[in-house]
Recover the amino acids of this structure.
């Protein structure tokens, strides 16, 4: 009987995790689809950091942004404009100034949901 209860609890937990992940992937960025340019990883301009799609390691290009500020930007994406980035809760004045000073190094494209967790951890490890 205990085994049946444990199995039922496990089954409910797995179903709720799957449902949350599945439903959470729809519609969250629908408003951005018309306003931002398309994202293409084949023709990507690597001279600028795409704030909606770039991996956290890309922020190494700008001194002072990796890892803390890069993580904040990645975790709070997507954005419609640089002003959205500057309005991230918890940013210090010096972090805002760093973002403004490097505004020419950033771009915004349509969010690509396929990246998901890869924006934080893209399996680049030191061995």
């Amino acid at each position: 009987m205990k085994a049946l209860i444990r199995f039922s609890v496990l089954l409910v937990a797995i179903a709720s995790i799957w449902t949350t992940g599945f439903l959470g992937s729809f519609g969250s960025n629908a408003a951005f689809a018309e306003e931002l340019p398309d994202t293409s990883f084949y023709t990507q301009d690597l001279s600028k950091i795409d704030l909606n799609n770039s991996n956290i390691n890309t922020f190494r290009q700008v001194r002072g942004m990796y890892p803390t500020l890069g993580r904040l930007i990645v975790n709070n994406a997507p954005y419609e404009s640089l002003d959205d980035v500057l309005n991230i809760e918890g940013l210090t004045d010096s972090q805002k100034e760093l973002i403004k000073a490097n505004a020419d190094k950033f771009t915004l494209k349509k969010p690509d949901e396929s990246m998901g967790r890869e924006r934080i951890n893209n399996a680049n490890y030191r061995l």
Remarks:
- The mean pLDDT is 77.
- Residues 2-23 form the longest helix (22 residues).
- The two ends are 47 Å apart (CA to CA).
- The CA atoms of residues 100 and 124 lie 29 Å apart.
